[in-house]
């Protein structure tokens, strides 16, 4: 045996000292009765019983799933033609499943078919018996305040500014708790009822949210703050893809019309809570995504719509859907993002397109082969929306960070005859307002929306503000108000006016809603 080194001797001494210490501690614990020696697997002590696994009852209609196996086990060589074909088949099957999810449903829906969450509606609870900017700025920083309100000598304008700035955020519930849709809000509308504010919102995957802001918050004791109830909301799903536009016809206040990227326009009866498809291509395999819907005030039976491929259509709902019953025009080579009929002269309508143009059209003389606009104005970048008011004004929003106002009433458009056109270069906006419209990919595009029946001679419209406000402008481009409040943490990009009341609502990318009254 070789002689141990001093280090090895010290190591063995430490091990012996440790073992002796552990032995003494074990003996002391045994004498105190707080230690029992562990039983080995070969001891005669009782073995713990294994808990019997619950028996799985196999249902009669349950079919066994095939076990997953790798290509190697199945004998398929890597990089072989068989493996490639299998990968292609799997991809095609997954794509078909995804396509089936987005394919529109052509049947009629009841409330139970559409219901997703919230409170199921009845006729009385929904509408009741009484219903037959200045450039980019820092977030939360106002660009219109009390000093701007006073900067006018026009008494009517000053009074309206004070009235609009007097609107306050509905505070029964925090805006963060009013989640009207599961996904990003794309479009909104007020019910025309003046007795209570009812808001409809459509989101990016086909949900329709309904919110009655006349409800009162129940009283909750301070000790029961955890039981504080959320507001009553209802979520339905009448479409399979984005709801891009909606409206309630003024002569049919119990019917809500919604247009969707799933190529259909549906009519929802707010009393019966049923949804019926009013327009769609004859075949469910035809993909003609819609971008807007509108109806004339004097014609409750005709639908007008635009498509993402630049098309415009007209359809009389009293006729069966067929190629002969639907009139189509190709008005642009690119997407028409928004359009509207003139409320006072419904044969005129305006379109806003990705081709950077706002165009005015006359339905009385619109050729199918070669449609010619009455007037056209080209912006530096794409135009997002064109909104008509009853006075004959058009408000547009554009990615060139401007809001443009065209006053056709001042140009005497009501006396224009069929075939009248404005020469190129002579159709110019009367007012241009600087406004940040750079929404990016996560915020819904900003679109102006007029108050259709204002209770004064001053026309007004609202539009979302990227600083987390809603801006209100007059028909001459003067800013009337900048609506905000505590609890608004996202851009209320989708802003809408009530038809006649000074109520404004804004929808966010998180499906939340803000309301000013």
Structural notes for this entry:
There is one protein chain. The protein is an alpha+beta fold and 517 residues long. The chain has one domain: Methylamine Dehydrogenase, Chain H (7 Propeller), CATH 2.130.10.10. 14% of the residues lie in helices and 29% in strands. It contains 6 helices and 28 strands. β19 (393-398) and β20 (402-407) form a beta hairpin. It is extended. The protein starts with 5 loop residues before the first helix and ends with a strand.
CATH homologous superfamily descriptor: YVTN repeat-like/Quinoprotein amine dehydrogenase
Low-confidence stretches: 53-62, 128-137
Beta content: 25-35%
Largest sheet: 5 strands, antiparallel
Mean pLDDT: 85
Approximate shape: extended
Beginning-to-end CA distance, first to last residue: 99 Å
CATH fold annotation: Methylamine Dehydrogenase, Chain H
Question: Order of strands across the biggest sheet?
Answer: 1-5-4-3-2
Count of all domains: 1
Radius of gyration: 33 Å
* CATH architecture term: 7 Propeller
Percent helix range: 10-25%
Secondary structure tally: strands: 28
Helical stretch tally: 6
Structural class: alpha+beta
